[in-house]
Batch of 2 targets.
Target 1
Amino acid sequence: MVRMYTHLKVLSANISINTGTYKVIADGNFISESAGELAYKLIYKNDSIEVISSDKKIGIYKYIKFIAENNPAAELKIKLINPDRKPRVYPQNMIFSTFESTIKIINDVEVDRYVAGVTEAEAGSRSNQEFYKVQAVLARTFALAHINKHVLEGFSLCDQVHCQVYYGKPRDASITTAVEATKGQVVVDDGLNLIIAAFHSNSGGQTANSEDVWGAKTTYLKSVTDSFSVKMPNSNWQRKMLTEDWLTYLRLKHGYPTTDPLARDIALNFKQNERKTYLEASNIKVPLKFVRQDLQLKSTFFSIKPLNNDSVLFMGRGYGHGLGMCQEGAMRMSKQGYSYEQILHFYYKDIQIIDMKKLSFFKDE
Ligand SMILES: [Zn+2]
């Protein structure tokens, strides 16, 4: 149960059948059984939904279900009218109800159909099979670990970054193939717990430890040297800043002793050959994760040098929090012939890739 368009106030939408036959049930009443061209318009009205088909008003309901009939390929096309959005195709069942002055749209979809949509949203649509497999296993692991994230709101996951981005059926059919090839597979730690499936764009040559980023230690989010991520699009970044602004930030936000010549020198010539967690001087520790957040830097993995009299240059490596799988590194590994299992074992330590059915078996014991 995934809620669609979670971030939008949906007031009207067109629903049409893309593939298969659908039964339409509204407030428990059978409305129609249709295939092919038949389209419905749904309009929000006073905490209910008006249903129109072929310019004819069918009725006003609270709860409308489109149920796919015995066809795994069944798909609906949804075109939002207000607000206006491009059409999207969603597999399997759809449920429409109202919530806080909007039409609430839920895709009742099997895990792997959902995983295929997430894989495309996260991995893009021009990659290769092994990389898709990596993203698919991680998307499935995340979905299972968070299946109750929105349970109090009546669904499992939302379609936004808060859970995982999901736009429905992937356009690239090879993604579906990759998902099927990893059917049911999830990543667990040495205690058979689903891992926190963290990943990021580029590690800059070294991934991070979870305790240095989130404060919590894990057995699998461990720093690794990652030569696969260098010389990729997001390997390096630079940012110029006024020296005065940098020092003022450190002083006001972190109580950093910028008048102390030694501390000032450390701040203006900060070096990271390996990832550090803090910028430190005279017992003051400035967490780099806050520096990244406050200054909106691409990563915490940066060095600084004075550029001229009044400015400094931040020379950064990588993009993202640095935890777990590095997407650009994994993409290169997959092109060099590493399997998705090898890639997952490289970026996550002491893990196992297992069938999720086995997981519930062990957990029940
Ligand atoms: Zn969510």
Note: The CA atoms of residues 22 and 34 lie 5 Å apart.
Target 2
Amino acid sequence: MYTVTVSGETLGYVNEKSELDQKLNEYINHREGTIALIDIKDMPEYKLDLVARKTATQEKSILEKIEDTSVITYKTYAITVNGEKVNEVNTEIEAQDIITNLQSDLKEGVEFNLGIVEVFSQEQNGISENSALETLNGMKLAKVQEYEEEQARLEQERIQREQEEARKRAEATAAKAAMTASFGSGNISGLNLSYPLRVNPVITSRFGEGGSRRYVHTGVDLATSLGTSIYPIASGTVIFAGPSGTYGNKVVVDHGNGVQSWYAHCNTINVGVGTEVTTDTCIATVGSTGNSSGPHLHLEIRINGTAINPQNYLY
Ligand SMILES: [Zn+2]
């Protein structure tokens, strides 16, 4: 009989070594389900021995012992989403089925790229086609939702951007309309300007001059005698009339289109808030109230709240 040893360990005795070899080959080559490979580390060795006849053939138990040491490798098919393995199913056909199913109504733009990769493992990882499909469908729906939320967010941003641009355009147009009024002929924003004094004054301080003042000069100073009549530079509505800190007695006339004219350091004021005035209305008289060193009219022109140089138009 033959003594069967594996890695030096005696497993038993057989009559025919070819029979055991054949059975081992059948074991190694049988393929069931996801089995890809059966590997037996040490094949048995045989030694012809003289043993007592009563020693039974132990083929079956020898086979079982050898099979116990074998390493089985399973092959499954993983479905990948955007390159990452998600679920493994048992066959390539199942994997392909799932992909076809998921891709059938996939919305354009949704990042849900499916693929198949073979996975070899000593563990049986494959799950049923249905549960893999369920998991992947859940992922797909989440991706679709994510995509739709992102689209909604982008749309919202686009609308906000458009509104902001429209607002800026409107502002720029208004500013341009105010600032590009023709300057040469004493016009501003469609207004024909006239001189606020009907005498020739002495210009004692120009727009923008600093000197010893704490602030840059926001108007032009027109010196003339106390009590000289002041007329608006254009028709409009009085929106302020009264004392105003360093400006002294002040009248502000609104001419529309964002244009205002200010008359400061007045001696007397002849109008009140709401008075409609023309270039022939004597609104006040020249004085020296507020921060002033002598009788003069401080004339200020504001466009949309910003003081501009009156001498661009007058004097
Ligand atoms: Zn001044």
Note: The mean pLDDT is 88.
